[in-house]
# Entry
Amino acid sequence: MNRVALLLIAALLVVTAPATSQQSLPTAVPPFKIAGNLHYVGTSDVTAFLFTSAAGHILVDTTYEKTAPFVADSIRALGFKLEDVKIILSSHAHFDHVGGHAMLKKLTGAEVVATAEDAINLESGGAKSFDKVGEFARVPVGRRLKDGDTVQLGGTTLTAHHVAGHTEGNTAWTTTVQESGRRYAVVIAPSMSINPGVKMVNNPAWPGVGDAYAASFKRLKAMRCDIFLAPHAVFFDLAGKRQKQQGGAGADAFVDPQGYQAFLDGLEKKYLEQVRQERQAR
# Structure
C-alpha cells in the first residue's frame, strides 16, 4: 500500500470520531513558515494558518477555545504582534476550529469574516448549526461573504468558495503565495467528512444536505492546487511534510496535488456509500 493510501486511511479514521469529543485536546507545536507570507500557527492536529503583511495579518481558523492560547503564542513566537492580526477567517463553524474566535478577537481586535451561512453559527455559538455537534463562545461577524467574494489585506487576496455540507457555510480558501521566484496555488480545504448521526437522505434539519455535498465535491475537485492544507494536520500529513521541509525541500515539501485529490476521492467514496446505504434502507 502506497504512502498516499496510508495517509488517506488515517484521515478517514480520524473523521469518523465523534466531533463532540474533547477528551484529548491537541498539543502545541512550534510555528513555522510554509511558503512566502503563509505560516503555520496551529496545533498538533487542529490547524490554523497566518498570512502576514506590513498592513496586517489574516488568521484562518483558531482551533478550540482551550488551545487558542497556543495560536496566540505561535503568532508571537514568529515575531508578529497579536494586534496586527486584522482579519479572522474560518474553514467551517465547528467548535474545534472556531472555538478560539472570541478569545482571539478580543486579544487582537480583528474583524471576524465568514460566509453568511456560517456567520449564523458563529454568532449563535453553534446553537443554530444543523448538526448540533457542540457549542462554543459566540462571536460577532463583521462581514458576511458570498461564494466567490475575496478578502484582501496588504497584497494578499483570499477567495472564499462556499462548499456547503460539513457545515452550512463550509468554506475553501484559495490564494497564491510566492517563494524563491515561484508562485504556488494554495488551497485550504474545509472538512468534507460526515459526522456520526448526520443523514444524507431526508435529513429533516437540512433536506438538501446530500445534494450540497455532491456539488461541493465536484467544485473542490476542479480547483487547481499546489500547496494542499486542511483543518486537521492528518488530512495533509503536516508532520511528514514539515520533516521534508526541514530536510531541505523548502516550500516544495507542501506541494501535493495528488494528495489533495486522494483526500477528496476518499471522502466522496464514503459519502456515496452512505447515500447508497440510506436509500437501500428506506
User: Anything to note?
Assistant: Residues 1-22 have pLDDT under 50 and may be disordered.
